[in-house]
Amino acid sequence: MERVFQALASTPRRKILAYLAHAELSAGDIAARFEMSKPAVSQHLSVLENAGLIKSEKRGQFVFYRLLPDALTNVLNGYVQEVCPVSRPLKAESRAIADKQRQSGD
């Protein structure tokens, strides 16, 4: 979760995520939208990929990136549940159910 929040702390990385919200783009297409060097954009893409927010796919000589919306949603949902007082007892109940299921499955 920490890597996700570190990735989201950067304005250029949040902009990259916005560009990828509805379209798959090549690294060159993404770099063309920023006034920074291609290696700098590549570093931002690497941070986002290492955080599990985007996925890359090499096709020929190009690398294409796409958003992994479920990963971001799950991380943010987990964070909200950690800080939300209403969720704590529900998560404890969920943990108890899971433990019970594991014990009955053995």
Number of helices: 6
Question: How much helix is in the residues?
Answer: 55-70%
The geometry reads as: elongated
The overall pLDDT, averaged over residues, is 88
Hey, roughly how much beta strand do the residues contain?
Answer: 5-15%
| Largest sheet data | 3 strands, antiparallel
CATH class call of the domain at 1-68 = Mainly Alpha
**Number of extended strands:** 3
Q: Could you state the order of secondary-structure elements as H and E?
A: HHEHHEEHH
Q: What name does the CATH topology of the domain at 1-68 carry?
A: Arc Repressor Mutant, subunit A
What would you call the structural class?
alpha+beta
Radius of gyration: 18 Å
Low-confidence stretches: none
Identify the strand order in the major beta sheet. Answer: 1-3-2
Protein name: Transcriptional regulator, ArsR family
Keywords: DNA-binding, Transcription, Transcription regulation
GO molecular function: DNA binding; DNA-binding transcription factor activity
Pfam families: HTH_5
Describe what you observe in this structure.
The chain has 106 residues and is an alpha+beta fold. The chain has a domain at 1-68: Arc Repressor Mutant, subunit A, CATH 1.10.10.10. Helices cover 64% and strands 13% of the residues. It contains 6 helices and 3 strands. A 3-stranded antiparallel beta sheet has the order 1-3-2. Helix 1 (2-8) packs antiparallel against helix 4. The protein is elongated.
